[in-house]
Design goal:
Structural class: alpha/beta
Number of helices: 4
Order of helices and strands: EEEEEHEHEHH
Helix content: 25-40%
Strand order of the largest sheet: 3-2-1-6-7
CATH superfamily: eRF1 domain 2
Shape: elongated
CATH architecture: 2-Layer Sandwich
Number of strands: 7
Strand content: 15-25%
Number of domains: 1
């Protein structure tokens, strides 16, 4: 008799500051939560800051452009950390406010290991940790999950 392994259901709630990865087990064990902090910085005013540019001899530099370039790299690293944490998931739910959830989805779909595993993306508001867990558990216990799961295309290994 062939044993089937339990489906690993993972929910991610994220914004640009932090992400919560919740793993829902098939058994009655409580969900596991992992928190990942982001290094992405919002606008920070430096003490004594006056001009939006700096001058170095005859060249002008814009500190805002430098900050934006740094944030692009920090966002890329943040999304890579999240994708690494999702490698062994079978079904993935992504939620959160803003555009970062869609950026995670797009980056994850480029990874061949995660392609086809994201089954739902939801726009949510800021939530507490208990609300995040409740929302993800509710999704995986709901009829919507069963319908989304049916629409997945299964590619034989």
């Amino acid at each position: 008799m062939k044993k089937t392994r339990a489906i690993k259901k993972v929910g991610v709630w994220l914004n640009t500051e932090e992400a919560y990865i919740i793993t829902i087990a098939e058994t009655d064990t409580p969900p596991l939560m992992k928190k990942i902090r982001s290094e992405i910085q919002s606008r920070i005013r430096q003490p004594g800051e006056k001009k939006p540019y700096t001058r170095f001899e005859t060249t002008y530099g814009n500190s805002e452009t430098h900050r934006q370039g740094r944030n692009v790299q920090l966002k890329k690293q943040y999304l890579e950390k999240l994708i690494d944490s999702l490698q062994d998931a079978d079904h993935i739910y992504i939620g959160g406010p803003g555009k970062i959830k869609n950026e995670l989805s797009n980056a994850a779909r480029k990874e061949t290991v995660l392609d086809g595993k994201i089954i739902h993306i939801a726009a949510t508001q800021e939530l507490t940790q208990k609300e995040i867990i409740a929302q993800i558990k509710n999704y995986f216990d709901n009829e919507e999950y069963r319908n989304d799961k049916k629409s997945l295309t299964v590619i034989p290994a």
